[in-house]
Amino acid sequence: MKKLWISILVVLVVFPMMFQSSVKAATPISIIIDGVRLSTDQAPVMVNGRTMVPLRAIFEAFNATIKWNQKAQTVTATKDDTTIMLKIGSKTATINNKAVTLDVPGLNLKGRTMVPTRFVSEALGHEVGWNPKTQVVTITTSASNVGNAGPVSNVVAQDVSDFGDGRDLQVSFTRVANESLVDHYRVLIVKSGNILNLSSAQTIASYNYSTVLPTGTNPSIKLTSASRTVDGDSIKSNQAYVAYVLTVGKGSNASALSSGSSTMTLVNKTVAAINNVQVNDISDYGDGRDLSVSFNKLSDESKVSSYRIFVVKATNYSNFNLATANNVTSANYTLVSKTGNNITQTLSSGARDVDGALVKTGVSYRVFVMAIDSSNAANNVLSSVSSAITLSNIGVSNLSVSDVNNYNDGRDLRVSFTHATDETYISQYRILVVPTSYYSSFSLAEANNISSAYYTAVSTTGTTTNQVLTSSTRDVRGALIKNGVNYKVYILSIGSSNTGNVLSSPSSVITLLNDSSVSIVSNLSVSDVNDYGDGRDLRVSFTHPTDETYISQYRIMVVPTSYYSSFSLAEANNVSSSNYTSVSTSGSSTSQVLNSSTRDVLGASIKNGTSYRVYVLTIGSGIYWDSNVLSSASSVITLLNDSSVKAVTNLSVSDVNDYGDGRDLKVSFSHATDETYINQYRIMVVPTSDYSSFSLSDANNVSSANYTSVSTSGNSTSQVLDSSARDVRGNLIKAGTSYKVYVLSIGSGNYAGPNALSWESSVITLSTTKSPLISVTDVTYKEDKGRILISFVKSANESNISEYRVLVVPSKQGFGSADAIEVRSSYYTSVTPNGTNPSIFTATRDVNGDSIVKAVKYKVYVLAVANNSGVQNGGLSNSTEEFEI
Known about the structure:
This protein is mainly β. The protein is built from ten helices and 60 strands. It is elongated, with a radius of gyration of 49 Å.
């Protein structure tokens, strides 16, 4: 029994060793033919010291034809004039019918016929080498260093991706028949319409083609984002291309260029990027309902199935990218269906950020939006990030309004509300009074744009506000608050830092009423009825209240329009008795011409040329002695003397040039029909910042240097002002300033006093729209007997230049183009362009009119001035160095 077990053990040890000596299939063996690894479906094996390889793979690598006789178990291979025949299991083979002995016969292995590599290779005239250390067989064919590898065929270019670069382009081709002659292939991309030949293909720089090594199979290569055309341009969408392949031979083997592929144009079919992602804090729920996200829809939504809104903590947004967005769970983003319109989405109370935390106040967030490609998730596109937003609970509550007085102005209106519970991010509250006729269109956007003169600011002090407005309070349209108008009130909470403003819901409607028996007059009108030049020219008419039981009198108050914006019931009650006209309650209406001594509410005599509005104050009596009420204002009236000096008509203004001074302004008007008593007209240019206060009195006092005189010749005037024209304040007229123009008719003879002022023109702001002049260069100076010799290089193009002005400036004085344009003509030296570089002596004064003296340092500038081609001034040179004479 013991001997039996020993025998079995010997068999188990010896049998594997015997098998290993005959077939070493486990050892990896590589076969390299002319530098190219032979690819086989059955790995080469070592049998008795000889490398065995699948017969079909080796013969096809040598381009030999093969015939297999299944019945006789023989294989016949033919290459050129050599024919080899082997029989499986036989150590005898024939080469051209001559018998040769094999060290190892052919055999079957796993369904493949294996033949000895060395015998087959040498029989066909090829050299064979063996490296036992690396287990590599090298075969060098007899044709490896002669001949032409030839061009590849079937070059095909395809659009395979949507990156918008070389990654979209795939090129495939059929390799050459004998790759033993090929060192490598070069894939060349050419813009459609360009020509490529062999000589030019061989000179392409290496970074402008893609290299493919021979593998024994037909290549298919996908280019990279860095791939370029043969011209060095990046490959991109919407450009037509043709692909070529250059076969580069080994050693002296010639190269060959393929035919071009069909023309193809890369089309980016991905979802486009999303833009204009905006975020706003719109409510005060303390959750996602406070956050509104808007963005512009894609112009082409054909590839879009939906959008996803991602809320990201601001501290983490820099790490958020497309890959991260694609992995966010559905519970942590908001899904939005495409609508075909730009989208505004308010999130829900359960909205979470991408970390899974509920959206809430006090946390800074940024928002991304991703467009979802309905066919390929890899093509999803992520927007750029929104601005940061911190949600804050800044809304007020318990808003209420009440009518508490009878002043017929803002003092009748009390506004009460409870402040926001968290005022950390609130800088102030604004009380906005909105006429109900405007209510339907009032919004947060409009509330944010209300002028500071049209709301009442309230600080965050305390927990509630209970405020009676003032007499000068105005509604959001700028009208004084008054009885008889329906209003709603809003509170705008102003957020600080990055927190948005929040508009409250409206209050209930309130209409202020005077609950006493003292009522305002109605149907107030004014007219110019005479030509005395005083109060006798002004008629005031109005209808009395129906019930005058508790009214003692009416007071007519004439208010200059310059004072109109601040006139109120409080001021009307305080007007001196010498500055209004009393009217009794007799009759149902009043139509009264004032007297010559009538004064306005400021105590000035009423006169022609001043603009007024008229009010009527109803005075209470008895128990209503302190319940006076003020009417609304009349229309504006300016008394004129119609019998002699009359104002011009049809006044218009236009911007006609681009000098940047008065020459840009054309003023046109029709003369007065009767000019018998008119001496001249004066064109007065008034900055709109002075408009509200400019009157006949102001016009009469304008300095002669600050208006343009026009004679009475002709029926009309259409005059372009000159470069030195100044506005009524004495400033040179210039581009960028808004003006209104008036024309003052100047009386003569017996009418030398009562001049007449026209209505104002429309507003005009002069602009310069053409290119500025090119300034001169290389300004140099030289002192000569107290005078300064200036030389400079003229402008390259003098076609638009009327003159050069040489300007001497004290070096300590700031000086620029605007300053240069305003220098008076007597304080600079003018040089006419003549095509040569000027060299002239300057005058002896600087730009301020001061004599040029010793011990004072100066600089010299040259200003190129426009001609009538309409090019703006401003071609000022650099200065010379400092000097003194």
